[in-house]
Amino acid sequence: MYFSLELLLFVATIATMEGVAYVTHRWVMHGRLGWFLHESHHRERPGRFELNDLYAVIFALPSIVLLAGGVRWGWGEWATWTGAGIAAYGAIYFGFHDVIVHRRVAHRIVPRSPYFKRIVQAHRIHHAVETREGTVSFGFIYAPPVEALKASLSANGRAGIREPKALSTARRG
What we know:
173 residues, 61% helix, globular
């Protein structure tokens, strides 16, 4: 296989993974099947880990199998490059989602570009809802314009929307 085709397959896999992530996040993680794991991600995390972290393991399995298939089991270079593309998407997702947005790793990164600001704001709007239903913005490398997300969230009504922290703490006390 030519390197240019391999590189194209790698990049196409990363782009395809955004669609796979959207579909999985929207209809599995926020669906009846996967909410039992993902719900922990829409609540305050009491420690370093949450049940939702098991999705990282689940999503890593196809990459591991494809990489092993391409490198060790003779499936062909397509398997290696596809597995590498899935792994690269996972690394990009981890960097954006866990490091920049949720700050699970200490850093001083401040999103300044319009693109990064939109990604961060879209994910924060996604987390304004604590329930399976009524949530908006399910992708991560691409996010619709923030105004459109706010309009969709508003159209969904207030069901499931998280209370501001000051109110929720005051009610407990």
